[in-house]
């Protein structure tokens, strides 16, 4: 299951884990090495390339995106001196839905210890209630909460005694075509996909401290084209969503208000404090030269437009996702990360409009990441490694769809039919309960 990687001499090293984050602005490859057989992993390299062929987190040009992936992989390979061959991929894009369902099984007339097979059965029972529209697939199946004999809040029922096991399950449903395109893109770049993780989950794992994820927090990764939202409580994800608005929308607002090119608007966005309450009241003018012309604009007008955009993003779109999580108490508040969280004063601004504590987070492993590649835009990439490790420790935590469904349309066949014409959406995946149960069976095969 793990990300085997080979040195240039062909030696395969199961101790190396590789993650690939397909971002709208940049593609990142993270390489980590395990400290020991069951230990943590240390990030040993981060490769990067500007993103091409990806818009709002979604692949819009397969060949361009595959070339960008290859470039980022080459950058990482140079840094770590290894040839990378297998990756866990984080992506978003398209419609991502999080659906809650319940399942129950009887353990018998007298109490007995819960076995791994019981957990698989109760997951399957909850899964049977999830209806997946045509051309969509379940990417993750996440146990949110277990109850034993009506006692809720059981973190891990394995080995515990009871007569009845209940589960609340979260299924993350995405368009099959989106997943297939990501799969083909990575395979076309010469890599094998060993797993997928939806971006908001990877970002939350990279950003939240264990205390925050247990107490209750909402993690928002403000990327270029998207915001990944994850509500965590009791150490588990309660809800995951992708909102198709990101930092690039703010840049576009600045460009359209000031009637200037995007690259100039991007510079202004990064340098000017657009979020402090004082800026709104200032009569000060924003002055700059561009192409030999002097521009002068009202700073308060610009600030108002940007603040309106961000206020709507958080008080309407993010709040809607928090509401859908069913978590009413978030004592650890809002944790923002991603490149957009670098905006000057955005944390204090969000604390005012959301009326909750806000922390602008670096990756929790930032002090062990390469200098210059340890900022908030790398939180998601670093979280992929945490995801891979957690999944290895507890295979039932974030179960993934079996990749077998995607293999039929991988590199060879996509190349033959012409990747541009490829329409994975027309491939109706096999019946979902069958395929998720297949992944559970695969887990068992690995365990025994
Ligand atoms: N100093 C800064 N101030 C404000 N915004 C910034 C700053 N630095 C980067 N950004 C913004 O962060 C965004 C890019 O963030 P990031 O690299 O996390 O995105 P991504 O992961 O490629 O995209 P996505 O996750 O949406 O697919 C851009 O909109 C960029 O303008
Ligand atoms: Mg991102």
What structural class should be given to the helix and strand makeup? Answer: alpha+beta
Spans with pLDDT under 50 lasting ≥5 residues? Answer: 6-12, 411-434
Q: Round the Cα radius of gyration to an integer and report it.
A: 23 Å
Question: Distance between the terminal alpha carbons, to the nearest Å?
Answer: 14 Å
In short:
The chain is an alpha+beta fold and 448 residues long. It has helices spanning 62-80, 116-127, 176-188, 199-207, 210-215, 247-258, 262-271, 277-281, 299-325, 346-354, 379-393, 404-407, 411-417, 432-447, and strands at 5-6, 12-13, 16-22, 26-34, 41-50, 54-55, 58-59, 86-91, 97-106, 112-113, 136-148, 151-154, 161-162, 164-175, 192-198, 217-222, 227-233, 236-243, 285-290, 293-298, 334-337, 358-360, 399-400. Adenosine-5'-triphosphate (ATP) binds next to helix 6 and helix 7.
Layout of secondary structure:
Layout: E1 5-6, E2 12-13, E3 16-22, E4 26-34, E5 41-50, E6 54-55, E7 58-59, H1 62-80, E8 86-91, E9 97-106, E10 112-113, H2 116-127, E11 136-148, E12 151-154, E13 161-162, E14 164-175, H3 176-188, E15 192-198, H4 199-207, H5 210-215, E16 217-222, E17 227-233, E18 236-243, H6 247-258, H7 262-271, H8 277-281, E19 285-290, E20 293-298, H9 299-325, E21 334-337, H10 346-354, E22 358-360, H11 379-393, E23 399-400, H12 404-407, H13 411-417, H14 432-447
Parallel strand pairs: 3-8, 8-15, 16-21, 21-22
Antiparallel strand pairs: 1-2, 3-4, 4-5, 6-7, 9-14, 10-13, 11-12, 11-14, 11-23, 16-17, 17-18, 19-20
Helix pairs in contact: 1-3, 4-11, 6-7, 6-9
Bound molecules: adenosine-5'-triphosphate and magnesium ion (MG).
Magnesium ion (MG) binds next to loops.
